[in-house]
Amino acid sequence: MTNQNVIISDPRSGFDSSLLSFSPAVPGPLPQPGRFIAVPAMKSFKNIDSAEAARITALLDSMRASSPTRRSSETENLKSWIVCHPSALDMFDEIINASKGKQIVVFLDYDGTLSPIVDDPDKAFMTSEMREAVRGTAKYFPTAIVSGRCRAKVFNFVKLSELYYAGSHGMDIKAPVKGRNYRKGNNQTVLCQPAREFLPMIDEVYKSLVEKTKSIPGAKVENNKFCLSVHFRRVEEKRWTELAEQVKSVTKEYPRLRLTQGRKVLEVRPSIKWDKGKALEFLLESLGYANSNDVLPIYIGDDRTDEDAFKVLRDRGQGFGILVSKSPKETNASYSLQEPLEVMYFLNRLVEWKRSSLQQRYQRK
Ligand SMILES: O=P(O)(O)OC[C@H]1O[C@H](O[C@H]2O[C@H](CO)[C@@H](O)[C@H](O)[C@H]2O)[C@H](O)[C@@H](O)[C@@H]1O
Protein backbone atom coordinates (compact mmCIF):
# COMPACT_ATOMS: atom_id res chain seq x y z
CA MET A 1 0.00 0.00 0.00
CA THR A 2 1.67 3.24 -1.03
CA ASN A 3 0.75 6.91 -1.21
CA GLN A 4 -2.51 6.67 0.63
CA ASN A 5 -3.75 7.22 4.13
CA VAL A 6 -2.95 4.29 6.38
CA ILE A 7 -4.81 3.74 9.60
CA ILE A 8 -2.72 1.98 12.15
CA SER A 9 -3.34 1.04 15.73
CA ASP A 10 -1.43 1.29 18.95
CA PRO A 11 0.22 -2.17 19.16
CA ARG A 12 -1.35 -2.74 22.58
CA SER A 13 -4.86 -1.68 21.60
CA GLY A 14 -5.86 -4.85 19.76
CA PHE A 15 -6.52 -3.16 16.39
CA ASP A 16 -4.75 -4.29 13.26
CA SER A 17 -2.85 -7.22 14.70
CA SER A 18 -1.00 -7.80 11.40
CA LEU A 19 1.25 -4.91 12.35
CA LEU A 20 2.26 -6.27 15.70
CA SER A 21 5.27 -8.14 14.36
CA PHE A 22 7.51 -5.08 14.28
CA SER A 23 9.60 -4.76 17.39
CA PRO A 24 12.12 -2.05 18.25
CA ALA A 25 15.77 -2.99 17.84
CA VAL A 26 16.49 -2.49 21.52
CA PRO A 27 14.50 -3.62 24.52
CA GLY A 28 11.95 -1.27 26.05
CA PRO A 29 9.96 -1.06 29.23
CA LEU A 30 7.93 -4.09 30.19
CA PRO A 31 4.58 -3.90 28.41
CA GLN A 32 1.84 -3.06 30.86
CA PRO A 33 -1.71 -2.88 29.57
CA GLY A 34 -3.41 0.39 30.40
CA ARG A 35 -0.17 2.22 30.98
CA PHE A 36 -0.45 4.34 27.87
CA ILE A 37 -4.01 5.54 28.34
CA ALA A 38 -3.23 9.04 27.08
CA VAL A 39 -2.19 7.64 23.71
CA PRO A 40 -4.77 7.75 20.92
CA ALA A 41 -5.63 4.23 19.84
CA MET A 42 -5.40 4.97 16.12
CA LYS A 43 -3.19 7.25 14.12
CA SER A 44 -3.67 8.43 10.58
CA PHE A 45 -0.63 8.45 8.30
CA LYS A 46 -0.46 10.22 4.99
CA ASN A 47 1.69 9.34 2.00
CA ILE A 48 3.52 6.40 3.51
CA ASP A 49 3.11 2.66 3.19
CA SER A 50 1.82 0.43 5.96
CA ALA A 51 5.19 -1.11 6.84
CA GLU A 52 6.66 2.35 7.28
CA ALA A 53 3.62 3.43 9.29
CA ALA A 54 4.10 0.42 11.56
CA ARG A 55 7.73 1.34 12.07
CA ILE A 56 6.86 4.94 12.96
CA THR A 57 4.16 3.77 15.36
CA ALA A 58 6.54 1.39 17.07
CA LEU A 59 9.19 4.10 17.39
CA LEU A 60 6.68 6.55 18.87
CA ASP A 61 5.28 3.98 21.30
CA SER A 62 8.74 3.01 22.34
CA MET A 63 9.65 6.68 22.77
CA ARG A 64 6.59 7.33 24.96
CA ALA A 65 7.44 4.34 27.07
CA SER A 66 11.02 5.48 27.66
CA SER A 67 9.81 8.46 29.71
CA PRO A 68 6.85 6.96 31.56
CA THR A 69 5.03 8.58 34.45
CA ARG A 70 4.75 6.27 37.44
CA ARG A 71 1.22 5.30 38.53
CA SER A 72 0.49 3.83 41.94
CA SER A 73 -0.46 0.45 40.41
CA GLU A 74 3.08 0.20 39.10
CA THR A 75 4.71 0.30 42.50
CA GLU A 76 4.26 -3.47 42.80
CA ASN A 77 5.96 -4.01 39.42
CA LEU A 78 8.81 -1.83 40.57
CA LYS A 79 9.26 -3.91 43.71
CA SER A 80 9.58 -7.16 41.76
CA TRP A 81 11.82 -5.53 39.15
CA ILE A 82 14.18 -4.31 41.86
CA VAL A 83 14.66 -7.91 42.98
CA CYS A 84 16.19 -8.67 39.55
CA HIS A 85 17.99 -5.32 39.24
CA PRO A 86 18.93 -4.34 42.79
CA SER A 87 20.19 -0.92 43.68
CA ALA A 88 23.91 -0.49 42.96
CA LEU A 89 24.09 1.31 46.32
CA ASP A 90 22.78 -1.78 48.13
CA MET A 91 25.15 -3.98 46.08
CA PHE A 92 28.16 -1.76 46.63
CA ASP A 93 30.13 -4.31 48.67
CA GLU A 94 29.55 -7.01 46.04
CA ILE A 95 30.81 -4.64 43.34
CA ILE A 96 33.93 -3.87 45.36
CA ASN A 97 34.55 -7.56 46.05
CA ALA A 98 34.31 -8.30 42.33
CA SER A 99 36.94 -5.63 41.66
CA LYS A 100 39.68 -7.32 43.74
CA GLY A 101 42.88 -7.41 41.67
CA LYS A 102 41.21 -5.54 38.83
CA GLN A 103 41.25 -1.99 37.54
CA ILE A 104 37.82 -0.36 37.74
CA VAL A 105 37.02 1.70 34.62
CA VAL A 106 33.96 3.97 34.82
CA PHE A 107 31.70 4.83 31.86
CA LEU A 108 29.03 7.48 32.32
CA ASP A 109 26.19 8.51 30.07
CA TYR A 110 25.32 12.22 30.37
CA ASP A 111 21.61 13.14 29.99
CA GLY A 112 19.44 11.46 32.60
CA THR A 113 22.54 10.05 34.32
CA LEU A 114 24.73 12.99 35.32
CA SER A 115 22.08 15.64 34.69
CA PRO A 116 18.32 15.41 35.23
CA ILE A 117 16.07 15.32 32.17
CA VAL A 118 14.78 18.84 31.46
CA ASP A 119 12.55 20.33 28.76
CA ASP A 120 15.26 22.38 27.09
CA PRO A 121 18.24 20.26 25.93
CA ASP A 122 20.46 23.36 26.02
CA LYS A 123 19.82 23.71 29.75
CA ALA A 124 20.68 20.19 30.90
CA PHE A 125 23.31 21.35 33.36
CA MET A 126 24.95 19.08 35.90
CA THR A 127 25.32 20.32 39.46
CA SER A 128 28.73 21.37 40.77
CA GLU A 129 28.43 18.57 43.36
CA MET A 130 28.03 16.06 40.55
CA ARG A 131 31.03 17.57 38.76
CA GLU A 132 33.12 17.10 41.91
CA ALA A 133 31.95 13.49 42.18
CA VAL A 134 33.03 12.85 38.57
CA ARG A 135 36.32 14.69 39.12
CA GLY A 136 37.00 12.51 42.18
CA THR A 137 36.13 9.37 40.23
CA ALA A 138 38.54 10.27 37.42
CA LYS A 139 41.31 10.82 39.97
CA TYR A 140 41.28 7.13 40.89
CA PHE A 141 39.77 5.35 37.87
CA PRO A 142 39.91 5.89 34.11
CA THR A 143 36.56 7.60 33.45
CA ALA A 144 34.71 8.17 30.19
CA ILE A 145 31.61 10.13 29.27
CA VAL A 146 29.63 8.29 26.56
CA SER A 147 26.87 10.47 25.16
CA GLY A 148 24.49 10.95 22.25
CA ARG A 149 25.46 14.61 22.29
CA CYS A 150 28.29 15.87 20.14
CA ARG A 151 31.59 15.73 21.99
CA ALA A 152 32.10 19.51 22.18
CA LYS A 153 28.64 20.07 23.65
CA VAL A 154 28.93 17.39 26.31
CA PHE A 155 32.40 18.68 27.20
CA ASN A 156 30.89 22.15 27.70
CA PHE A 157 28.48 20.69 30.22
CA VAL A 158 30.99 18.48 32.06
CA LYS A 159 34.03 20.76 31.80
CA LEU A 160 36.58 18.19 32.98
CA SER A 161 39.62 17.75 30.74
CA GLU A 162 40.89 14.65 32.56
CA LEU A 163 38.12 12.45 31.15
CA TYR A 164 37.71 10.39 27.99
CA TYR A 165 34.81 11.62 25.86
CA ALA A 166 32.81 9.56 23.38
CA GLY A 167 30.28 11.88 21.72
CA SER A 168 27.65 11.24 19.00
CA HIS A 169 26.73 7.85 20.51
CA GLY A 170 30.38 6.81 20.56
CA MET A 171 31.16 7.91 16.99
CA ASP A 172 33.60 10.59 18.15
CA ILE A 173 36.10 9.45 20.78
CA LYS A 174 38.88 11.42 22.35
CA ALA A 175 41.23 10.68 25.22
CA PRO A 176 42.59 13.33 27.57
CA VAL A 177 45.68 14.95 26.06
CA LYS A 178 47.68 14.26 29.19
CA GLY A 179 46.34 10.76 29.68
CA ARG A 180 47.26 8.93 32.84
CA ASN A 181 49.52 5.89 32.63
CA TYR A 182 46.96 3.30 33.53
CA ARG A 183 48.48 0.38 31.75
CA LYS A 184 50.41 0.98 28.57
CA GLY A 185 51.81 4.46 28.96
CA ASN A 186 48.93 6.00 27.14
CA ASN A 187 49.64 9.69 27.03
CA GLN A 188 48.40 10.36 23.52
CA THR A 189 45.05 11.60 22.32
CA VAL A 190 43.20 8.62 20.95
CA LEU A 191 40.80 9.61 18.23
CA CYS A 192 38.16 7.45 16.64
CA GLN A 193 35.63 8.82 14.16
CA PRO A 194 34.21 5.85 12.27
CA ALA A 195 31.43 7.91 10.63
CA ARG A 196 33.57 10.73 9.23
CA GLU A 197 32.40 10.23 5.65
CA PHE A 198 28.81 10.93 6.80
CA LEU A 199 29.51 14.51 7.92
CA PRO A 200 28.31 16.25 4.69
CA MET A 201 25.20 14.03 4.61
CA ILE A 202 24.36 14.74 8.26
CA ASP A 203 24.70 18.49 7.66
CA GLU A 204 22.41 18.29 4.63
CA VAL A 205 19.80 16.27 6.55
CA TYR A 206 20.03 18.70 9.48
CA LYS A 207 19.09 21.61 7.21
CA SER A 208 16.20 19.68 5.65
CA LEU A 209 14.89 18.60 9.05
CA VAL A 210 15.01 22.14 10.44
CA GLU A 211 13.03 23.32 7.40
CA LYS A 212 10.50 20.47 7.51
CA THR A 213 9.80 20.70 11.23
CA LYS A 214 9.71 24.47 11.69
CA SER A 215 5.92 24.62 11.44
CA ILE A 216 5.44 22.25 14.39
CA PRO A 217 5.53 24.24 17.65
CA GLY A 218 8.08 22.93 20.15
CA ALA A 219 9.95 20.72 17.65
CA LYS A 220 13.71 21.07 17.87
CA VAL A 221 16.45 19.55 15.77
CA GLU A 222 19.82 19.23 17.48
CA ASN A 223 22.99 18.81 15.45
CA ASN A 224 25.19 16.30 17.24
CA LYS A 225 27.82 16.28 14.50
CA PHE A 226 27.74 12.59 13.48
CA CYS A 227 24.05 12.21 14.31
CA LEU A 228 20.95 14.35 14.78
CA SER A 229 18.31 14.49 17.50
CA VAL A 230 14.74 15.50 16.77
CA HIS A 231 13.14 16.49 20.07
CA PHE A 232 9.48 15.72 20.80
CA ARG A 233 9.42 16.72 24.47
CA ARG A 234 7.94 20.18 23.91
CA VAL A 235 5.62 19.15 21.09
CA GLU A 236 1.93 18.53 21.86
CA GLU A 237 1.45 14.76 21.87
CA LYS A 238 -1.35 14.97 19.30
CA ARG A 239 1.25 16.27 16.81
CA TRP A 240 3.88 13.59 17.43
CA THR A 241 2.74 11.47 14.49
CA GLU A 242 2.92 14.46 12.18
CA LEU A 243 6.44 15.25 13.39
CA ALA A 244 7.57 11.64 12.99
CA GLU A 245 6.15 11.66 9.46
CA GLN A 246 8.09 14.80 8.61
CA VAL A 247 11.27 13.19 9.91
CA LYS A 248 10.60 10.06 7.90
CA SER A 249 9.86 12.08 4.76
CA VAL A 250 13.41 13.43 4.95
CA THR A 251 15.29 10.31 6.04
CA LYS A 252 13.64 8.03 3.49
CA GLU A 253 15.82 9.76 0.87
CA TYR A 254 18.92 8.61 2.78
CA PRO A 255 19.04 4.81 2.98
CA ARG A 256 22.48 4.98 4.61
CA LEU A 257 20.95 6.62 7.67
CA ARG A 258 18.78 4.97 10.31
CA LEU A 259 16.33 6.14 12.94
CA THR A 260 16.50 5.13 16.57
CA GLN A 261 14.63 6.51 19.56
CA GLY A 262 15.50 7.78 23.00
CA ARG A 263 13.69 9.74 25.67
CA LYS A 264 11.16 11.78 23.68
CA VAL A 265 13.68 12.05 20.89
CA LEU A 266 14.21 10.46 17.48
CA GLU A 267 17.85 10.05 16.55
CA VAL A 268 19.06 10.07 12.95
CA ARG A 269 22.39 8.31 12.58
CA PRO A 270 24.64 6.52 10.10
CA SER A 271 23.82 2.85 9.51
CA ILE A 272 27.25 1.69 10.57
CA LYS A 273 27.92 -1.03 13.08
CA TRP A 274 28.99 1.36 15.78
CA ASP A 275 27.25 2.26 19.00
CA LYS A 276 27.96 2.92 22.68
CA GLY A 277 28.87 -0.76 23.12
CA LYS A 278 31.54 -0.53 20.42
CA ALA A 279 32.78 2.70 21.99
CA LEU A 280 33.14 0.93 25.35
CA GLU A 281 35.16 -1.86 23.71
CA PHE A 282 37.30 0.67 21.84
CA LEU A 283 38.06 2.56 25.05
CA LEU A 284 38.92 -0.60 27.00
CA GLU A 285 41.28 -1.59 24.19
CA SER A 286 42.84 1.90 24.18
CA LEU A 287 43.46 1.54 27.89
CA GLY A 288 45.20 -1.78 27.30
CA TYR A 289 42.38 -4.00 28.52
CA ALA A 290 41.33 -5.80 25.34
CA ASN A 291 40.64 -9.47 26.16
CA SER A 292 41.87 -8.88 29.69
CA ASN A 293 40.56 -10.23 32.96
CA ASP A 294 42.32 -7.51 34.92
CA VAL A 295 39.57 -4.95 34.43
CA LEU A 296 36.14 -4.29 35.90
CA PRO A 297 34.14 -1.90 33.71
CA ILE A 298 31.18 -0.13 35.30
CA TYR A 299 28.78 1.53 32.84
CA ILE A 300 26.00 3.79 34.15
CA GLY A 301 23.25 5.01 31.79
CA ASP A 302 19.53 5.66 31.51
CA ASP A 303 18.76 5.46 27.80
CA ARG A 304 17.93 2.85 25.17
CA THR A 305 21.25 3.56 23.50
CA ASP A 306 23.04 2.55 26.71
CA GLU A 307 21.62 -0.94 26.32
CA ASP A 308 24.26 -1.62 23.62
CA ALA A 309 26.96 -1.07 26.25
CA PHE A 310 25.11 -3.09 28.92
CA LYS A 311 24.87 -5.94 26.43
CA VAL A 312 28.60 -5.86 25.67
CA LEU A 313 29.35 -6.20 29.40
CA ARG A 314 26.84 -9.01 29.76
CA ASP A 315 28.27 -10.85 26.72
CA ARG A 316 31.84 -10.41 27.99
CA GLY A 317 30.72 -11.62 31.43
CA GLN A 318 32.67 -8.70 32.78
CA GLY A 319 31.81 -5.70 34.93
CA PHE A 320 28.42 -4.22 35.69
CA GLY A 321 25.82 -2.25 33.76
CA ILE A 322 23.78 0.06 35.97
CA LEU A 323 20.47 1.40 34.63
CA VAL A 324 19.26 4.75 35.93
CA SER A 325 15.49 4.43 36.09
CA LYS A 326 12.58 4.97 38.44
CA SER A 327 10.38 2.51 36.60
CA PRO A 328 10.79 -1.11 35.54
CA LYS A 329 12.41 -1.52 32.13
CA GLU A 330 13.60 -4.53 30.24
CA THR A 331 17.37 -4.15 30.40
CA ASN A 332 20.71 -5.87 30.07
CA ALA A 333 21.97 -3.95 33.08
CA SER A 334 22.71 -5.85 36.28
CA TYR A 335 21.86 -3.16 38.79
CA SER A 336 19.87 0.06 39.01
CA LEU A 337 19.94 3.55 40.45
CA GLN A 338 16.83 5.69 40.56
CA GLU A 339 18.11 9.11 39.51
CA PRO A 340 21.22 11.25 38.96
CA LEU A 341 21.41 12.03 42.68
CA GLU A 342 21.90 8.32 43.39
CA VAL A 343 24.53 8.20 40.64
CA MET A 344 26.38 10.92 42.54
CA TYR A 345 26.13 8.97 45.83
CA PHE A 346 27.45 5.88 44.07
CA LEU A 347 30.43 7.72 42.56
CA ASN A 348 31.23 9.33 45.91
CA ARG A 349 31.20 5.93 47.60
CA LEU A 350 33.61 4.58 44.98
CA VAL A 351 35.93 7.52 45.63
CA GLU A 352 35.71 7.16 49.44
CA TRP A 353 36.37 3.42 49.24
CA LYS A 354 39.43 3.90 47.01
CA ARG A 355 40.80 6.75 49.11
CA SER A 356 40.52 4.83 52.35
CA SER A 357 41.97 1.62 50.90
CA LEU A 358 44.99 3.58 49.58
CA GLN A 359 45.37 5.22 53.00
CA GLN A 360 45.29 1.85 54.76
CA ARG A 361 47.91 0.48 52.37
CA TYR A 362 50.11 3.51 53.03
CA GLN A 363 49.79 3.14 56.82
CA ARG A 364 50.76 -0.56 56.66
CA LYS A 365 54.07 0.31 54.97
O1 LIG B 1 23.47 9.68 25.56
P1 LIG B 1 22.94 10.83 26.35
O2 LIG B 1 24.01 11.67 26.97
O3 LIG B 1 21.91 10.40 27.36
O4 LIG B 1 22.20 11.75 25.27
C1 LIG B 1 20.95 11.34 24.71
C2 LIG B 1 20.20 12.56 24.25
O5 LIG B 1 20.16 13.42 25.38
C3 LIG B 1 19.60 14.73 25.21
O6 LIG B 1 18.20 14.60 25.10
C4 LIG B 1 17.59 14.11 26.28
O7 LIG B 1 17.82 15.06 27.36
C5 LIG B 1 17.25 16.36 27.16
C6 LIG B 1 17.69 17.25 28.31
O8 LIG B 1 17.33 16.70 29.55
C7 LIG B 1 15.72 16.24 27.04
O9 LIG B 1 15.13 17.51 26.83
C8 LIG B 1 15.39 15.28 25.88
O10 LIG B 1 14.01 15.07 25.83
C9 LIG B 1 16.11 13.93 26.07
O11 LIG B 1 15.91 13.10 24.95
C10 LIG B 1 20.22 15.42 24.03
O12 LIG B 1 19.57 16.67 23.83
C11 LIG B 1 20.20 14.56 22.79
O13 LIG B 1 20.89 15.22 21.74
C12 LIG B 1 20.93 13.27 23.11
O14 LIG B 1 20.96 12.43 21.97
From TrEMBL:
Physiological role: Removes the phosphate from trehalose 6-phosphate to produce free trehalose. Trehalose accumulation in plant may improve abiotic stress tolerance.
Family assignment from sequence similarity: Belongs to the trehalose phosphatase family.
Pathway(s) annotated for this protein in UniProt: Glycan biosynthesis; trehalose biosynthesis
Cofactor requirements of the protein: a divalent metal cation
Keywords: Hydrolase
Keyword Hydrolase attached: yes
Reaction it catalyzes: alpha,alpha-trehalose 6-phosphate + H2O = alpha,alpha-trehalose + phosphate
Record-listed E.C. numbers: 3.1.3.12
Name under which the protein is recorded: Trehalose 6-phosphate phosphatase
UniProt enzyme class: hydrolase
Keyword Thylakoid: no
